[in-house]
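User: Can you fold this complex?
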Amino acid sequence: MNQTIGGVTVTPELLLFGAVAGAAALCAVGVVAFNNAIRSALCLVVNFFLLAFLYFTLNAEMLGITQVVVYTGAIMVLFLFVIMLLNLGAPQLLVEKRDPKKYIGVLLGAGMFVLLGSQLLPSLVKINAATLTPNLATFGGPEAIGRSLFTSYVYPFEAVSILLLIGIVGSILLAKRRV
Amino acid sequence: MADFVQHLHPVLQALIRAVLLVIPSLLLLPIIIWWERRLLSWMQDRIGPNRVGNITFSRTSKLVPSFLQGKKFRLFGLMQPMADFGKLLFKEDITPTAIDKLIYLTAPALALFPSFAIGGTIPWGPYRFLTPVGDVNIGVLYIMAISSLGVYGIVLAGYSANNKFSLMGGLRSSAQLISYELAMGMSLACIVMATGSLKPTEIVTAEHGPLWGLDVAPFNLIENWNILTPYGLVACIVFLICMVAETNRAPFDLPEAENELVAGYHTEYSSMKFAVFFMGEYAAMFAYGLILCTIFVGGWHLVPIRFAYMSHAFPAFGDIWNVLDTLNGSSILAPVWMVLKGLLIITSYIWIRATLPRLRYDQLMSLGWKSLLPLATVNLVVVAIWIVATKVSSPWIGWAAVAVSAVILYVLYQAINRLNTHDRVDLASREIVMVDEPPQRRELDLVDPAPATTV
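Assistant: Here's the predicted assembly.
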């Protein structure tokens, strides 16, 4: 039933994954392509939302729902909030003409792309040969994530929480200065 | 029925489950709107809509069959929502010109989506093949995720209409939703910790166990509804307040405060686009009611009595207990009780709306951040202490630890409060000195104007 193209079996899950990934990539392009700041932010929202669906198709439910709660639900709302308050509604003022930053940016971006690709491609080629069979019943579930978070990774976890605390204290300090 | 559904293709099964979630919610919307208007008018000493749908047949016309002549049929105004819908449908659809059209048109849809999607993990009865839509391992987190998406519809509606009142409404709403989501998440986390599962179905199963986890005579006859446990009661109150705030209902309806902002975020929306916002609000109310039912008030059971256990404990009346158990929710009646409980919670929404005046913005923020969030966090600590004490020793010690820790935390709270307000004049509770004298008319010192000089 399922066709095989280039050693990859085409399943409905794979097609769904491809569709969602393509839409997410389009939205990512939209983030930088739109002149309107609100449109860009909305593209980022949709991109984050679709990323969550990518995680769902990869059986990482917990990661996907955390993506929606944290990024789509909280952080992007604050982004929109700030953009609306600043009212960045005049796109023609934001367009810069003949700026050397543009060309340097393109060069750096291409360099980054090559760097990432050189690291990613070898593992992508091997991914079908690898016999990676995680236990699908518990993979990506809250129990598995919680267990590894509070046993193997408890030190980085606590370090991140202290980092966040420092961030909160710092923001209060900055805000209090004006009062 | 079960066999028939279970032999269908999984995609069809999922579709059936989704339709069974959306259609009943949609069908209940007109009844909820009618109920709100009638109950509110009764509470405000008015009559409310009671005419639409009444039919009075002519007494003399030949076209009316004789058995109907002069008969009156009353529907108590139940058709009023239909009439309103017809009005909204045929109203002129005004679209302002200087707007962000794409966002303006998608905002109502974005506002409607979360209110129907949020019920996706809520079970309506003990039938796993029909409900919930997805019994995923992250059910409670799913509720949090979808409720956090609810802000987009309102914010984008407020922004895109290019109207300062709309924008103010949208900004107020986003600040409000973000603030109250934290306390809501904390109150749900208490129940998740106490139950040990993120699945709403497992939370309901745990709620049908013996009260407080004690297997002793008076306790094992009563179900362990979370609202009947000390921490669950606190979490339920916090959740109820946050729920009202999340659905933008009075007294938290600042985003659409009509005396300040015309109509808030939907000022520039008319006709069906406004109706979509309206529908979304009521559907969200109902969905949140179902969530409250599931997580705190025992799911689809009508009363918190364990009839199934009683038929074992008192086998003399075995059949009676079995019949009562069937009536209490182990049958097709389960969704009926679920809907009735949801409507009861909507009644409390309406009651709150009729009772409390709208909060001021600073009151709203201080309630969310200074009262509800600390309360929910302290509650979380109490639940953690309970879990540890129960695991280490026995359930009795666990409940003793809850009582002791609650007392200690209350004393700590009082001490901190006293330190905070030590030598500060408390402006909020400043005494008003009433002058104990009857009101007097200020006597004007009438000075005779200069005598008119005669020329």
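The first strand of chain B starts at residue 55 and ends at 56. The beta strands of chain B are 55-56, 72-73.
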